[in-house]
From TrEMBL:
E.C. designation(s): 6.2.1.12
Principal EC category: ligase
Residues covered by the AMP-dependent synthetase/ligase domain: 115-337
Cofactor(s) demanded: Mg(2+)
Protein name in UniProt: 4-coumarate--CoA ligase
GO MF term list: 4-coumarate-CoA ligase activity; ATP binding; long-chain fatty acid-CoA ligase activity; trans-cinnamate-CoA ligase activity
One GO-annotated biological process of the protein: phenylpropanoid metabolic process
Alphabetized UniProt keyword annotations: ATP-binding, Nucleotide-binding
Species the sequence originates in: Triticum turgidum subsp. durum
GO CC, any one term: membrane
PROSITE patterns named among the record's database cross-references: AMP_BINDING
Domain of life, per lineage: Eukaryota
Reactions catalysed: (E)-4-coumarate + ATP + CoA = (E)-4-coumaroyl-CoA + AMP + diphosphate; (E)-4-coumaroyl-AMP + CoA = (E)-4-coumaroyl-CoA + AMP + H(+); (E)-4-coumarate + ATP + H(+) = (E)-4-coumaroyl-AMP + diphosphate
Amino acid sequence: MAREEEGPAMMDAAERRLRVVSAHLEPQAGATAGLAANPTAGEYAHVQGYSVVLPEKLQTGKWNVYRSAESPLRLINRFPATPDIGTLHDNFVYAVETFTDCRYLGTRVCADGAVGDYKWMTYGEASTSRTAIGSGLIYHGISEGARIGLYFINRPEWIIIDHACAAYSYVSVPLYDTLGPDAVQFIVNHATVEAIFCVPQTLSTLLSFLTQMPCVRLIVVVGGDNANTPSTTAAAGVEIITYSRLHSQGKMSSQTYRPPKPEDVATICYTSGTTGTPKGAVLSHENLIANVAGSSLGVKFYPSDVYISYLPLAHIYERANQIALLHYGVAIGFYQGII
């Protein structure tokens, strides 16, 4: 309204032309005469708020194709400031180089039944452990591209194992710790999982039907005691070792990384199986990087942030959160298992 009061002299040329043409139009019955400039994608995004409609249509149906209003003219599939990051391995290497001595993974220390302060592992220390675990898997003959199961709740070792999978081109297969024997058995056999990381509580579940999972060759017990962990199960011929022993073996026989390509499979995320047998979503490294890079346009994290991890890591939402937090050097503290 202010521009109308200022008169034609203050209008830009395009608006003046629109008003002149509009004044010569005769409105149809019940319609209002007038022309309006078609907004550009950027202007349209500002008006719409969350998304913009792209010109193309889906091949079937009448649905529109939308893109985030944060980037209306370009599809985001890499972090804008670090476009060379194409895999989870690249993302971890970048984070370690950038935030080497910063806090990364933390757990609360328990002594005499009391929960104390958090004890932190730095990004650099996590990198060392990642190399040891990946090298340990190679030491035990787990070949490149093998599927690795993770069968326990959130804790630092979960993240380190996942990083090891990315560094040595293994495919992680998360298993909800609440899954029953039938679902675990189905997923392990369906994905042909060769090695499973578990905790003492879930080890007993695995041993009850281990003979029905012939693909499994190695079980690694996180938080297990070397003295009380069986080394082998004669019936199935599966080796069982503790996480600490695997870590030591890998540290003594360190292997060079086997970096994946962006199009390589990073993980297979299965549903919990509440509506039938679990369904597996096969996700590549570039899938995950694109998802997090796109989200980063609207959600920002900083190295001074501290994040509490309690959502299940077997769920893709928390996995995506972890990728983003890593990229920005955030400290991640883990809950104690009770909410």
